[in-house]
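Note to self: the last two entries modelled the partners one at a time, which told us nothing about the interface. This time every component goes in together.
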Amino acid sequence: MAERQDRPPSSIGQRKVSRRGLLGTAAGLSAGALLASCSVFQRKEETPKLGASADEIIKARQLTPEDVTAALMTYVPSGKYDEYLMFSSTGHGGQVLVHGLPSMRLLKVIAVFTPEPWQGYGYGGYTNEVLEGGYFHGKPILWGDTHHPALSETNGEYDGEFLFINDKANGRVAVIDLRDFETKQIVKNPLLVNEHGGCFVTPNTEYVLEADQYSVPLGGVYAPITEYKEKYRGVLTFWKFDRQKGRIVPEQSFAIETPPYWHDLADAGKGPSHGWAFWNSINTELAIPGIAEGRPALEIATTQRDMDYLHVVNWKKAEEVIAAGKYEEINGFKVIRMDVAAKEGVLFLIPEPKSPHGVDVTPGGDYIVVAGKLDPHVTVYSFAKIQQAIQAGQWDTDEYGIPVLPFEQCVEAQVELGLGPLHTQFDDQGYAYTSLFLDSAVAKWALGKPYRDDGWKLVEKLPVQYNIGHLAAVEGDTTKPAGRFLVAHNKWSVDRYASLGPLLPQNAQLVSIAPNQPMRVLYDCPIGIGEPHYAQIIKRERIKSWEIYPEVGWNPHTQSTDPNAVLKVGEERIERRGKTVEIWGVLLRSQIRPDLIEVEQGDEVIWHLTNIERAKDATHGFALGGYNINLSLEPGETQTIRFKADIPGTFPFYCTEFCSALHLEMMGYFLVKPT
Amino acid sequence: MTGITVRAPAQAGISQAIARVVARIGDRIPFFLAAAALALSLSLPYWHMTLLAPQYPGGLRVWISLTKLTGDVQEVNGLNHYIGMMKLEDAAPFERAIAPYGVLALALVALLAGLLRRRWTALLAILVVIFPLVFVADLQYWLWYFGHHLDPHAALSSAIRPFTPPVFGTGRVGQFVVETRFDSGLYLAVLAAASALVGIIARLRGPAQRG
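The predicted structure of the combined assembly is written out below.
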């Protein structure tokens, strides 16, 4: 562990230091003790020298004028804050990253689906319960494939309160509370196994959207692959979110059954399209695997049709259908069957160019932009025209009886951008930005009326390095995009960084989208701990997180005070009841109290620990080697660990977070007497 | 209420000017002012200290008012425990227990002096005049007490000798810049003392009153 040099009282590590130094560390009433011998403290301000020396640096480092501008646009001086925070997924890293913009500094890794020792996530305490919420049929799943983070919204704008993130691999959704940046809940979708179309929130975070990717029979039960058409199904899920509790409420959530098309990305309507949600789909061919059985490879078989289906869902209507009781419960989850969804006007399909990827609603909620992936266009649907088509009632159905609205009647425009359009974001000038995977570029294009008069036109393309997937502009999927910057999340970095072995970091590139200027890459940020897919960028001031927990004895899981908290030194205690030993402990600089615990082999141990510190950053760790216990107790936090003392022996426990000059002395012994 | 006219001496001078001011203010208003200032001071801090160090960018602050300690008390106590210093809240238990009643009583004394125009009420108000001095002296005593009653078993006990922090000052000590300052409550008490003094002078110099 690296020793921090900034923890008080730092100078007491050196014994026999001068009286002045000691008094300094002692502070408090020792305060003015040496007033007579002390000079008044003065801070000297030195004016930095500019000009000639800057030129020398530019010359020595061989920087171009563009490099210098980029540096000036992205440099955040020591001690200053970034303007924006970017929350990005890490793919199969299973976590969430928080970067500052424009510096692109990595500020935090938020543990979500994967245990993370620094945060004490998954090594005893309530975080184990959070992870257990996502176990599959009781089987521990200790990683995830995070794809699409979604910040909670109020009136279609980020409110900075919560973050949701999905796990594609195991069909789960996690809730992160942005008061303390910790994961509070993981829910397993009981209807599906694999998902992709989440997380996206409705404009007031009424629901968190999640849909399957690879269809399975509802609930993931067994059915032969040859019965794919009959038994396999898609699932569009609306997870109800209770903002007061900070939890998803499965009992109030519902899902809509669909044909076994593979659902891809989603977005929620807003403004005029509030109450509606959109998913696109692939494999409307209903192809199934079986190369050995003579079937074509899926990449061939799923791309035969020229058109797939945009799914248009009236979730307000779905709420009425649920309220009317027209649903079935499957695995304890409310499901609107697809025939009911079709009959009640909950679900409509519209053809979309084949194998699309992103579906993104414009800031005003008036258009839905579908990126073609295998089609060089983005296809822009008009929500008003979709409504007219629904009103007109002239439609065919697919083979499952779901209404298919006429493509021509719903489309506003198609804009040719280039090869491999994937995802679209927006700025505050009426422009849209679409990632082009095959072209390795970002396309800037103009939206039509009411955004711009020169609309539905490609403006500019910027090469990025390389194979861009998602992109994220500042608040670029909200009702009020903020412009200025976007980040290209590139899948390949190839030659952008020094060789680090064959597994290369991902490349997140900061791009300037300042008005009336060409787009330009400002900064390359390597991501060496996962593969970010989607990201969202929020203005920093929207997030009002706690600097320390609000009260001593705070249980971050319940976000309230814990009845087992010890609030004061001296109130710590140990109780034995038969084969159970319960400990109420306290941590402060530089003690863990009680510091001697003696139990018998086989005893059940319940250990409550409270960090009673109130100083910002005075976090204490608690590690009990040999028992796989490792907690991070932030100022005010209380945690409870439970375990069986099944291994006899002598186990030192200690503070893992370098907290004070006597940090190394902050330890105790846990003795397990053999029986 | 109108002031009592003081017969001014014939010759001009400072004493005359003072006398004129005192005469204009009278011998009631200063006592009422003193009573109000004292009552108000109960809710305000009398003294504070600020500790500045690199690892505390905003500084640490402790405010001492007559009834409570506020600010970063726990943090300062935590730092102090390394040298074996007592907890701040253990200082002056008796004084802090009686302080609210005592200051309220002083305010009542001032009020009485304002209402009852007697010499003895004015003389009683001398207590109001000396109160700030008593407070500062007591605070200094407790600072001495804290600096001279360090736990010999503390981590740093072998390296520190007894000391007395002053009640008012600024110093650079190790990595800490420490400022000890009087605060608004004490300034109000001083205002009350000065005001009461004016009232007493006016009363004593005024027309003879019984008692």
